[in-house]
Structure formats: C-alpha cells, structure tokens
Amino acid sequence: MTTELPAPVRAALDAANAGDVDAFLTCFLQDGMVDDWGRHFRGHEAIRRWSDREFIGVHVSLEVTDVATHHAHAGEVTVLAQVGGDGFNGPSHFTFRTDGDRVERMTIRA
Q1: Closest of 33, 22, 28 to residue 9, by C-alpha
Q2: Spatial contact of 28 and 13, defined as CB atoms under 8 Å apart
Q3: Who's near 27: CB < 8 A, 6+ residues apart?
Q4: b/e sequence 76-108, b meaning 16+ C-beta within 10 Å
Q5: Rounded distance, CA 102 to CA 6, Å?
Q6: Most buried residue among 9, 18, 35, 92 by CB atoms closer than 10 A?
Q7: Which residues pair with 81 in a beta bridge?
Q8: Using alpha carbons only, what angle is made at residue 61 by residues 13 and 47, rounded to the nearest 5 degrees?
Q9: How far apart are CA 66 and CA 38, in angstroms?
Q10: Least confident range of 3-12, 29-38, 65-74
Q11: Rounded to an integer, what distance in angstroms lies between the CA atom of residue 13 and that of residue 15?
C-alpha cells in the first residue's frame, strides 16, 4: 500500500465489508454521490437504493490491494480493491473525494 486511508474512506470500506448500509451512508455528506460507471446516485436515499441492489445488498466484500493519493486533487484517494460477493467480482478502482470527515463522492471504475 502506498498510503494510509483517510478516516471517512476507511469507515466506508469497513461498513461495506460489515454489510452495514446505515453506517455506510453516514460516511457520506447528505448530498454525497456514488458514480458507478457513469450512473450517478446523489443523496442518502439514492445511494441506499443503489447499494441495496448492487453493493451491500449483494454481500459485497472489498479487499484493498493498493491505495494512491492524488496530489493534483486534494482530498482524493484511489483504492484498488478485489471485489467479491454475489454481484460483480474482480478488481475495481474506487476513487473517493472527501470533504472534512465525510465522503463527498465515490467513483467506481475497473
């Protein structure tokens, strides 16, 4: 791993791995967003619906294999994780943009 995870990112990953959607949502700003391959889910209710169908609801597991910070974009970190569960399985990049102690945006790409 190249860097330590910011606290809100670690909390979001831990909540996802624990299957705790409520804890996952509290990691996001009220108007936070998930960008899942160009599909945008803004706000806690939209993120919950997405997660119930495609993330925590399908028993996601995220094994972090690398972390990189973005020096050009303060508050951004990309996590490479091996995704498991009953949905998509394989490596994915999760780019988190944080604002204080919350996640502003989580972008998912291969």
Answers
A1: 28
A2: no
A3: 8, 11, 12, 15, 102, 103
A4: bbbbebebebeeeeeebebbbbbeeebbbbbbb
A5: 10
A6: 9
A7: 64, 92
A8: 60
A9: 23
A10: 65-74
A11: 5
Q: ∠78-15-30 over CA atoms, to 5°? A: 80
What's the confidence (pLDDT) of residue 74? 74
Task: Give the strand pairing for 102-109 and 28-36.
Answer: parallel
The two tokens of residue 41 are 């889910």
Residue 50: exposed, middle, or buried by beta-carbon count in 10 A (0-12, 13-18, 19+)? middle
Q: How many CA within 13 A on the CB side of residue 57?
A: 8
Tokens standing for residue 7: 């606290």
Which token pair is 62? 């995220």
Strand positions, DSSP E, the chain: 28-36, 39-42, 61-69, 76-84, 90-99, 102-109
